[in-house]
Amino acid sequence: MRYVSTRGTAPHLPFDEAMLTGLARDGGLYVPETIPTLGADQIAAMEGLPYEEVAAQVMQPFLGESFTPDELRGAIERAYAGFSHPARAPLVQLAPRHHLLELFHGPTLAFKDFAMQLIGQLFQIALARTGRRITIVGATSGDTGSAAIEAFRGLPNVEVFILYPHGRVSEVQRRQMTTPVESNVHALAIDGHFDDAQARLKDLFNDHAFRDEVGLAGVNSINWGRVLAQVVYYFTAAVSLGAPHRPVAFSVPTGNFGDILAGTVARRMGLPVARLIVATNQNDILHRALTTGEYRTTKVAPSISPSMDIQVSSNFERALFWAYGGDAAAVAQLMDELRSDGGFTISQGALQALREAYASGRASEDETLATIRDTFAATGELLCPHSAVGVKVAAEHLAPGLPMVTLATAHPAKFPDAVEKATGIRPPLPPHMADLMARPERITRVENDAEALKSLVRSRRSE
Ligand SMILES: *Cc1c(COP(=O)(O)O)cnc(C)c1O
């Protein structure tokens, strides 16, 4: 199993190297050369299995020789041992055909833990083999950063730098990043939006000399290892609702397109996913692109669902690559246009392929608050604002005989202000974080400038 870049000119890599690298050297994203499929019998036999067992079955075919089945199995067991729910990703019902997939029972209360805890384990195995020392630099709209810090804090041979947009993450999100005491953890508040943080991160990766000097590794959702870990819960959810005998639809609160891309992979592996719905907040570039064929960036409008306040949706590049039939030159050209003109037009053929793969919808701020309020009144479930965006858009796509699953991407206690505004109830943090608001913070401010960032990384690394 080899991995190729969506822009066609980076070296082909095995799974472990693609995972350690993150972004390809030509600026593209790694995708598997082919997507393995699972037979209907094998999918049916997943019914009732522990999450960890399904994870091993779904992921192993993508790993080639990179990790043995025993190594993978051990990594999966350790990754999910700290989750607070035995099902790991439990389903709860909201309405007769509508289910919520709770992905927030990991240590930092967002779905990012599913992938980050696992790649933390896989990184450790790979680094122990080579004795390599790496520098992880990540950009976050809030939840990736805390999940990455939780997964890599205190590890030897790893320095973790997390860039988050100053003043644009929730207080709980910020404190999860700024309160860990381990000296290998560096939370950096950048002046700008998430897109600025992500652009500076890409600048670092595209400086090959710097990249090699510090052993740069990426854990953003552009990392294929993360996408792969997220494929698993599409299988567990769909199988418990009757797949492969019954198709299932998913509504996915979307920002950087990582989570919904994992659903795309599940479908291509043979899971009967009837609909994949891109649910966006008021930053609706993806909904507009799928509706009009024009991918045009505008200014980010900060919202109550900050983890989706994104205009440049990195993983969409992988969806484009598949929609263009694997034409890496065409993708590279679109990405050049995005950089020079702030947008591009999707070809008719590719747009048709994307519309066959995805439906879409958006929720305004008022609609998001109303959904939190109405869902609580009807079911007693408290939704985080991101999950509420998914529930609102899912409700527009309910169809007879088709179970709908909305991904609940974060715990409501991570966004208590929005939840309280909608319902009057302030959801408490779980016991393991009860003192979060009292812990001392460590924050470094950094300019929105690649050179400033490089020198900061260099000096912190050598301390
Ligand atoms: C990251 C995140 C999203 C968006 O997921 P993508 O994979 O970036 O599309 C949605 N909700 C929450 C709570 C998140 O942390």
TrEMBL record:
> Which residues are reported to carry the modification N6-(pyridoxal phosphate)lysine?
K112
Q: Which reaction does it catalyse?
A: O-phospho-L-homoserine + H2O = L-threonine + phosphate
- What are the alphabetically sorted keywords of the record? Amino-acid biosynthesis, Lyase, Pyridoxal phosphate, Threonine biosynthesis
Note the InterPro entries from the entry: Ser/Thr_deHydtase_PyrdxlP-BS, Thr_synth_N, Thr_synth_N_sf, Thr_synthase-like, Threonine_Synthase, TrpB-like_PALP, TrpB-like_PALP_sf
If you read the UniProt record, what top EC class would you report for this enzyme, in one word? lyase
Task: Look up the record and give one Gene Ontology term from the biological process aspect.
Answer: threonine biosynthetic process
Query: Which pathway does it serve?
Result: Amino-acid biosynthesis; L-threonine biosynthesis; L-threonine from L-aspartate: step 5/5
Q: What is its EC number?
A: 4.2.3.1
Q: Which GO terms describe its molecular function?
A: pyridoxal phosphate binding; threonine synthase activity
For this protein, the record's Pfam families field holds: PALP (PF00291), THR4_C (PF24857), Thr_synth_N (PF14821)
Q: Which family does it belong to?
A: Belongs to the threonine synthase family.
- Put simply, this protein is called Threonine synthase
Identify the taxonomic lineage of the organism of origin: Bacteria, Pseudomonadati, Pseudomonadota, Alphaproteobacteria, Rhodobacterales
